[in-house]
Design a protein that fits this description.
four-stranded antiparallel beta sheet; alpha+beta; binds acetoacetyl-coenzyme A
Length: 380
């Protein structure tokens, strides 16, 4: 793996950094406090070419590689992880799902508006009783000849309201268990789709999260993606890649908190010296810096594997697991280093700590990543 970024990758990183530092930081505290959706910022992401950044230019995307993608997510997450999760779900689940499993007609109709940022994508797998145990899908899709009828409820859906193209997993043949699950492209405005209230979350407060209810929703037959019965494998494959994006997000959150803690430790004085001169603080910073660096290597490696068309399932699980644990550790220490200031909103580290928590939960909990990793190493 080459540790020297190309000119293009550096440019993308700089552009994401400028956008995050100059635009996201200005209102992130207000959006966090009030749970305001970052509508203007999402439009800017489209202008910058970050929505659909890895999609082939043939379909209106940016044709960028996964290293560029993780660099962008990392920079944005340092400042505002809510914006990063919208971007990550849109790119690595929504766009990637249709690009890699859809046919050309589906790509023309649904991928193109996603790739240009005209529309936002969402991924609907989790259900009230199927979170980690994703094979237990209860949402049904009954084959009616030229269309399917969908019924059921999906939970914790990022971009459920502002997204307009859903990728939905539903059971067509319950007797076949996970082999009866199919994946469908569903337009958000179809009759029979309703949303639960906006979830009042601990962190990621300005991302749009709802449950989604399907009541006799008529989905055209041509909107099924992939082979019949391939829905569960498609979902698993998408999550393999999705976890690289969430790992990059966790890395960015950790870095954001580490950088703030380092700056603070160099300025704040106690007992007659800057607190970085106290070993209790400098050792904390040494641990934080080391873990951030280790997480960075895992994240870049998994993106590099994907770019090089090599297997990346185990590595993306490792990256997601380690980066999420690191984000929680580093943000907690950053609050501690800030003392009382860390506990108030204006210093940002308490927000970063709240944002870190969900990286241990969504797109597969840390415990699920341990399952994926342990099964992979057992079969090596
Ligand atoms: N690629 C392709 N196929 C895969 C696969 C992969 N990565 N992983 C599993 N499969 C296949 C298996 O080969 C198996 O197929 P066969 O029956 O044909 O052999 C089938 O899928 C079932 O696999 P398992 O027997 O391994 O299934 P399991 O029930 O033991 O569990 C699991 C698998 C890894 C625990 C899985 O359920 C899982 O990943 N759970 C977590 C779900 C998750 O991450 N949810 C996140 C929701 S999305 C989200 O958070 C988005 C957001 O908005 C932020």
């Amino acid at each position: 793996m080459d540790y020297k970024f190309t000119e293009e990758q550096e440019m993308i990183r700089q552009s994401a950094r400028d956008f995050a530092q100059r635009e996201l930081l200005t209102d992130v505290l207000e959006r966090d406090a009030k749970g305001i959706y970052p509508a203007q910022h999402i439009l800017r992401l489209a202008e910058l070419g970050f929505l659909g950044m890895t999609v082939d230019p043939l379909w209106g995307g940016g044709g960028m590689d996964n290293i560029s993608y993780v660099l962008a997510i990392e920079e944005i997450s340092k400042c505002d992880a809510s914006v990063a999760v919208i971007l990550a779900v849109h790119n690595s689940l929504g766009c990637y799902g249709i690009e890699h499993f859809g046919n050309d007609t589906q790509k023309e109709k649904y991928l193109r508006p996603l790739a240009t940022g005209e529309k936002i994508g969402a991924f609907l797998l989790s259900e009230p009783e199927a979170g980690s145990d994703a094979t237990m899908q209860r949402t049904t899709a009954v084959d009616m000849g030229d269309h399917y009828i969908l019924n059921g409820t999906k939970n914790w859906i990022t971009s459920a309201d502002k997204g307009s193209i859903y990728l939905v997993m539903a059971q067509t043949s319950p007797e076949l268990k996970h082999k009866g699950i199919n994946a469908f492209i569903v337009e958000r405005n179809l009759p029979g789709i309703s949303l639960g209230p906006h979830e009042d979350k601990m962190g990621m407060r300005s991302s749009d999260t709802h449950s989604v209810m399907f009541t006799d929703v008529r989905v055209p037959k041509e909107n099924r993606i992939g082979e019949h019965g391939a829905g569960f494998k498609i979902a698993m494959k998408l999550l393999e890649g999705g976890r690289i994006g969430i790992a990059a997000q966790a890395l960015g959150i950790a870095e954001g908190a580490y950088e703030r803690a380092l700056r603070y430790a160099k300025e704040r004085k106690s007992f007659g010296t800057e607190i970085i001169n106290h070993q209790a603080i400098s050792f904390k910073l040494a641990n934080m810096a080391t873990r951030v660096e280790a997480a960075r290597h895992l994240v870049y490696k998994s993106a590099w594997l994907k770019d090089n068309h090599l297997p990346y399932g185990k590595e993306s699980a490792m990256a997601k697991y380690y980066a999420a644990e690191t984000a929680m550790y580093v943000t907690t220490e950053a609050v501690q280093i800030h003392g009382g200031y860390g506990y108030v909103k204006e210093y940002h580290v308490e927000r970063l700590m709240r944002e870190a928590k969900v990286t241990q939960i969504y797109e597969g909990t840390s415990e699920i990543q341990q399952i994926v990793i342990s099964r992979a190493i057992a079969s090596e």
